[in-house]
Amino acid sequence: MMSDLVDFWLFALLTSITYLGFNLGKISELTKLTKREKQVQEIVDRIFGLEIKPSGETKVLDLTGREVEVLQESVGGWIEGVALAENAMMWCNEDGYRLKMLRNSFAEMIWDAYIDRKNPIVGTVVLTGGVDERGELFSLTQKQIERISNDIKFVQVIQPLKGDHSSEFGIY
């Protein structure tokens, strides 16, 4: 019985990764900005990120003018940024493993789709646009936020367990 549940869980996880990796493409598709989107981003001059909790709950964050503070508050401590692509960053808690935060399977699926190596991701993460040569942070576009949020909702629908299933992956 337990073996069947594990097999089903692995099948659901692999299906999710396949969906994210093949149907949606790599991060480059999500991070390509049209000329119009770049103009709108410059006009609005606001920085938005997408918070992703281990439960799959997402929230749009306005980081404008308080980037470091908002990121630290969201991830629950010191921040560590990982470049997923030229104009996409994933921010997580630098001490997440030591603090034994819950594994974030949703962030891992994003990581796996964009980075060609496996790595457990723990705790709440925030996705943002990239960072320029001066260290200035760029915003995600509304299109990127909607697409990533919808992808996470899709994965939640096909997963066999309800609620916060992140503990099923273990604690790091």
The main β sheet shows up as:
5 strands, antiparallel
Strand content: 15-25%
Terminal CA distance: 26 Å
Which strand order does the major sheet show? 2-1-5-4-3
Question: If you had to describe this structure to a student in words, what would you say it looks like?
Answer:
The structure is a single chain. This protein has 172 residues and is an alpha+beta fold. It has one domain (2-169). Helices cover 42% and strands 16% of the residues. The chain has 6 helices and 5 strands; from the N terminus they run αααββαββαβα. Strand 1 (48-52) and strand 2 form a beta hairpin. It is globular.
In a few lines, what is going on in this structure?
The chain is α+β, with helices and mostly antiparallel strands and 172 residues long. The protein contains six helices and five strands, in the order H-H-H-E-E-H-E-E-H-E-H. Helix 1 (2-23) packs across helix 5 and helix 1 (2-23) packs antiparallel against helix 6.
